[in-house]
Amino acid sequence: MKPTTTLGLVLAASVATSASADITGAYLVSYEVTTEDFGGASVSVFVQDLYLASDDGADVALNVFNMDLSTANNAASSYFQSATSTGWLAQNAGGIFDNAALRLADSFVTIGGFAQDTLLPEQAPGAGSGSGLDPNFGGNTAAAPGNLAGWYNGSPPSLNGQVGQVARADGSFGLGVLVGRFATTEAADLIGGTLEVTWNQGLGTSGQQGAFEIAPAPGALALLGLAGLAGRRRRG
Questions:
Q1: For FRET with 118, which of 29, 110, 178, 218 sits at 20 to 30 Å CA-CA?
Q2: What φ, ψ does residue 194 adopt, rounded to 5°?
Q3: What are 122-151's pLDDT values in tens digits?
Q4: Which residues contact 117 (CB under 8 A, 6 or more apart)?
């Protein structure tokens, strides 16, 4: 199976709470995906991958909370889920349930746990396992995150939220961690939404918290590195 992926202009956000903050902001990598769902159905969605940016490779994201999309430019009331998706918690059961749409186009939230140093993280079997939803999210089968939604690493010893090299606005890579994928059949825009984050530097270290706004990075409209780039993806 070889779904075609077209990458659109990337929008990024990075708002630091203080000069000493290690998780320094939240940003989006945005693109379009055309692929196949379970049974061969064609799927075309607009995808926004949500990352936390960091300035220290020892940082470990623990949770995202108080996510408020009421101030976003164009948040959707519902998000695409693959036919074999089990809901917002990242999970690919593998076998006959594994398909390109689940890997590349399904909406989910996570605290890391995905292969990094890749432009398009795949929801492969095992990716993102161990995350949980707080009550404000609205449940695993909610059409969209609820007001002040949150999610967390349910097994902190796993260090799923450890930062690594992840995609940046210009197609390069920098320190960060994937915390969600939001896919819609029509273009949506989470820019302007806000969220809060807790992180530490591993077991036994104190936690820190910060509040961030999802907003375009300075000069984002001049970035051409990913605009119009087309690629071929093969399911592993």
A1: 218
A2: -130, 160
A3: 999 999 999 999 999 999 999 999 999 999
A4: 164, 165, 166, 173
User: Residues of the chain with pLDDT > 90: what percent?
Assistant: 71
| CA–CA gap between residue 90 and residue 130 (Å, rounded) | 9
Is 208 within 8 Å of 200 (Cβ atoms)?
A: yes
Q: What are phi and psi of 28, to 5 degrees?
A: -115, 140
Indicate the residue type of 225: G
For the full predicted model, state whether its pTM sits above 0.90: no
SS3 of the chain: the string is CCCEEEECCCCCCCCCCCCCCCEEEEEEEEEEEEEECHHHCEEEEEEEEEEEEECCCCCEEEEEEEEECCCCCECCCCCCCCCCCCCCECCCCCHHHCCHHHHHCCCEECCCCCCCCCCCCCCCCCCCCCEEECHHHCCCCCCCCCCCEEEEECCHHHCCCECEEEECCCCCEEEEEEEEEEEECCCCECCCCEEEEEEECCCCCCCEEEEEECCCCCCHHHCCCCCCEEEECCCC
Nearest to 233 by CA among 153, 124, 145, 147: 124
225-235 pLDDT, tens digit per residue, is 332 332 333 33
Token pair 């994201």: residue = 61
The residue type of 186 is: E
What order of strands is seen across the sheet that includes strand 208-213?
131-133, 149-153, 60-68, 194-200, 208-213
